[in-house]
From TrEMBL:
It comes from the Bacteria. This is SpaA isopeptide-forming pilin-related protein.
């Protein structure tokens, strides 16, 4: 593949120095046959719109032959001298055309040598040679005597135009002894051949231009010159970029595997079907004369002259990063416990592996990074507040060749703050949004609802001393809109870390963030006075900008209004940690109910009701 690509790139070179240290070495090398090679996405595609297959290489030593008394027509030079023009052929029958009007051939089977030092050849530019070759190629392809004569006259016209003719053509005539009898057909046909030959050298209108190509979006280019049909062969030099040609339209498409950026000669197209590094013409000097002045030089053609064009491509790759927020317990936007709310979390988009936030100005030229959903909290860097759980937060027009990370900057109320980064990476598995031309990376972040735990010893007052009391049941009931079911816990004996057994231990664990009421439940035949209900109230603390700074939880006796304990929890405490606190409320004591001894005073009455 590398060898073939090198040959294709060599097509555009104008000089080489490896053959007799002379620039025209390439003009005498050709490859027989047509290469049919499949090289995948960045490979070659060959079409058969033209008959461009190369023939077997012509000989290096041959003869130039012509038949006596069979002129096609007469060429008239600047002096008025008429020169008979028979059809010339090499020894193998290949047609050949004179390059010097009035320069003789010693005989009708003159020795000819392939000659890179030929004076006429080296006086011409590559473009002039290419047009000459095309004229003779078109005539050879036609195969008629008229086409041969038209090409011969056109050759003289082109050499005159180049200013290197030994003699110049002024006119042509046909006679009774010529094989052709319509001079005007030769003249007009010659001019037509020149026009066609030059047309074959025209490159499509978009040649050399730079085309912007967005990954995933097909782009059509139309050749306004109408010459694209002359270029059935094309090669993409970029992996992930495909090209197809239909008439004068070229369709390009880049997938997400293609690299982003500007690529010169990303697409090359050329007219000939062979992968030859040479122009397909052969110039022969005859009778040992390299000057072409003493003995006629001739040109033979195999294929059209190579014409190659190219497109530069600027590939744009766009990426959309979407993020949704879920409750870790429900794996959805619904919350089933507590008083927290998933809305209003704040997220930043970072350059992967760094603490550098992506800037809106980091977008590709003409495609600024912009917000799809979420509310900006910063106008320079991507920091978004999630106000709509269904839409989440999202930005588009990221450079999809780079990697990013979502990071939580502020947790929603009642949830822990996670420092875990969520990776954003674009690849072929991502959905392509044809409306925005972005590949979409979607992710879901989960936060845990906050909770807390508290405990105490349930005791009874026995003659002034407190004794742990097992078997008493307490109920926690969510209040003030806090979600969840009531929780009941019964006091019992527990063993501490020192192996000591404690009676009356009550532990409430994983109580959801929010408000609640703690009550002791009465028992049948109860002889104890129940503790007063205790309210638990959670307050969210915010700064002047409305950002959550922490929480305050207060336990209060609802009867006496005495505050049992107040706990302040900072956001740092609930970073990567959903437990706000675990507090020991101490000992809650039940006192025995003192029985009331009734005092009964009676008076006797007589049978008839009189008091005695």
């Amino acid at each position: 593949m590398r060898k073939l690509e090198k040959l294709l790139n060599d097509l555009t070179e104008k000089k080489v120095t490896n053959w007799k240290m002379h620039k025209r070495k390439k003009a005498f090398v050709a490859f027989a046959g047509v290469l049919a090679v499949g090289l995948g996405t960045a490979g070659l595609v060959y079409a058969s719109a033209q008959s461009t297959s190369a023939k077997a290489s012509l000989p290096t030593d041959t003869t130039v032959n012509w038949e006596n008394n069979k002129p096609l027509y007469y060429e008239i030079d600047q002096t008025g001298k008429e020169h008979p023009k028979p059809m010339l052929k090499l020894a193998d029958g290949t047609p050949a055309w004179c390059l010097g009007l009035g320069v003789p051939l010693p005989n009708n089977s003159t020795k000819a040598q392939l000659d890179a030092t030929n004076g006429i050849l080296n006086a011409l530019t590559d473009e002039q040679i290419a047009v000459l070759n095309n004229v003779d190629y078109l005539a050879q392809k036609d195969g008629s005597e008229l086409a041969y004569a038209q090409a011969q006259h056109a050759t003289y016209l082109l050499l005159d135009e180049a200013g290197i003719s030994e003699n110049q053509t002024k006119d042509l005539v046909v006679k009774d002894n010529t094989l052709l009898h319509d001079a005007n057909a030769i003249k007009t046909g010659a001019n037509d051949l020149i026009n066609q030959a030059k047309k074959m050298r025209e490159l499509p209108s978009f040649n050399g231009s730079t085309v912007e190509l967005i990954q995933g979006v097909e782009k059509k280019l139309t050749d306004s010159k109408g010459v694209m049909a002359n270029f059935p062969n094309f090669k993409s030099n970029i992996d992930g970029v495909t090209a197809s040609v239909s008439g004068n339209d070229v369709k390009l498409k880049a997938d997400i595997s293609s690299k982003i950026g500007l690529f010169s000669k990303a697409l090359q197209f050329w007219n000939t079907g062979s992968a030859t590094a040479s122009l397909p013409y052969y110039v022969y000097s005859t009778d040992g004369d390299s000057t072409g002045k003493s003995s006629q030089s001739v040109l033979a053609s195999q294929d059209p002259s190579q014409a190659m064009g190219a497109l530069n491509i600027n590939i744009i790759g766009l990426g959309e990063a979407d993020l949704l927020k879920h409750d870790a317990d429900t794996n959805s936007t619904k919350t089933e416990k507590g008083k927290g709310s998933l809305v209003n979390s704040v997220w930043g988009l970072y350059k992967a592996g760094t603490n550098t936030l992506v800037k809106y100005s980091d977008g590709q030229k003409g495609y600024p990074i912009s917000v799809i959903s979420g509310t900006k909290t910063n106008n320079d860097t991507v920091q978004l507040k999630m106000t709509d759980l269904k839409a989440g937060v999202a930005v588009k027009n990221l450079d999809n060749s780079k990697e990013y990370e979502w990071g939580e900057l502020q947790a929603p109320e009642g949830y822990d703050l996670s420092t875990k980064r969520i990776k954003v990476q674009f690849d072929k598995n991502d959905k392509f949004d044809s409306k925005t031309n972005n590949y979409v990376d979607s992710a879901i972040a989960t936060d845990k609802p906050l909770d807390y735990s508290f405990g105490f010893i349930k005791a009874q007052d026995v003659n002034g001393s407190h004794t742990g009391l097992n078997g008493r049941t307490f109920r926690y009931t969510p209040t003030n809109g806090t979600k969840g079911e009531p929780i009941e816990v019964t006091s019992k004996a527990t063993e501490d870390s020192n192996g000591v057994t404690n009676n009356g231990q009550v532990n409430f664990t994983k109580i959801p963030f929010g408000d609640g009421l703690l009550e002791e439940l009465p028992q049948e035949g109860d002889t104890l006075q129940l503790i007063n209900p205790i309210s638990i109230v959670t307050t969210t603390n915010k700064d002047k900008d409305g950002n959550i700074t922490g929480y305050t939880v207060t336990f209060t006796d609802t009867v006496t209004k005495q505050v049992i304990t107040t706990l302040d929890i900072t956001t740092a405490k609930v970073t990567d940690n959903s437990t706000m606190f675990n507090v020991n409320l101490g000992t809650l004591v039940d006192k025995p109910v003192t029985p009331v001894v009734p005092t009964i005073k009676t008076k006797a009455h007589t049978k008839d009701g009189d008091q005695i």
